[in-house]
């Protein structure tokens, strides 16, 4: 349901903590209406710090953010009723039942879904009378999601939504997120599961050391990284016995004993050339394995600092905003100043009141 309208925008955003540490360094991206956008990165990459700015839990030190056209920090009265937030840890009262927790939260939410509908959405209808302390970790994550969806949000923030879920629960959550997208909900999710990003995300951004290292559709992000072919050299053969590699599209190689790994920008040409050579030489390329680059490989290259850039553009902290997107110059009053004293570090958002949104002031 992408109509080109950006409902989440970050433009040249920085976030600093006491002591001057910059957890977010010039991050820029936008999320269009009805889109699922994944924010990836290793621990400490700046994901949570970035998402908290978008949720309105803190003000950027520099740059600007907009959600549904408003500053989520200064105009939370306009943004919160239209957003839902699933935190990494809900912090529910342990003695309440699942149904009591839903009713308690519904009392603080404008236009809340009926209790039964909310529990049915996340597969907890049969656990409504169970106390929160008796739920499994995966069931608590489902309850988190139910509360985030209570207010029928236009924009949904999901922080590690499937942590603790089994395979079936993860698939059910994916199906629900897709159904929400199809109904027009815009979703920004963080996840450590790269398969989850590949399955769900229309577009994604990979953060590294507080900056956007790669952004775009999964295919676009992966496209600029080489495919791989590996095999074992036949007994008595050496690397120099292979046909000339550069004309086959090979851009690099590694050799360990008899095992050869080739990196190529043209997987079909390289594989065809090698197989024709093997047929003519009447030899077998044992343990032959050919595969295109994966999101996991791109992620690991970025995480280890091996990738200096990527399709969709690397972000050096001064990435130009998309035409028509929010400009850093349009930063809200107070942008460019230090964060408020006592601002919570990443991961402590659960301590802030009303963190889930969905109808609270």
Characterise the protein shown here:
- This protein is an alpha/beta fold and 361 residues long.
- The protein folds into 2 domains: 6-222 and 297-351, Rossmann fold; 226-292, Alpha-Beta Plaits, CATH 3.30.70.
- It contains 10 helices and 13 strands.
- It has a 6-stranded mixed sheet, sandwiched between helices.
- Strand 11 and strand 12 (259-264) form a beta hairpin.
- The longest helix is centred in the middle third of the chain and has 16 residues, at 167-182.
- It starts with 5 loop residues before the first strand and ends in a 58-residue tail after the last helix.
Explain the layout of strands and helices.
Layout: E1 6-16, E2 22-32, E3 36-41, H1 47-54, E4 62-67, H2 76-79, E5 83-86, H3 98-106, H4 115-121, H5 137-149, E6 155-159, H6 167-182, E7 186-190, H7 194-200, E8 203-208, E9 211-216, H8 218-223, E10 227-232, E11 250-256, E12 259-264, H9 267-281, E13 286-291, H10 295-303
Parallel strand pairs: 3-7, 3-8, 5-6, 6-7
Antiparallel strand pairs: 1-2, 1-4, 8-9, 10-12, 10-13, 11-12
